[in-house]
Design brief:
56 residues
Length: 56
């Protein structure tokens, strides 16, 4: 896996309006992985209740 071969570090905007699907609280941005060859960005979120989700 190439997740740990990061060559650049930058700032990514969080989406503060993302809500947890179980408790309804606001999700916190946990990790962002960018795949330049596919031009995709994967964002991982976590909630205080322990739920984790992602989008791309």
């Amino acid at each position: 896996m190439e997740l740990f071969r990061a060559e650049k570090v930058g700032e990514i905007e969080s989406r503060p309006n993302r809500k947890c699907r179980f408790c309804g609280r606001t999700l916190r941005l946990l990790k962002v992985v960018h795949f330049p060859d596919r031009e995709k960005t994967l964002r991982s979120f976590v909630c205080e209740c322990g739920d984790r989700t992602w989008d791309d």
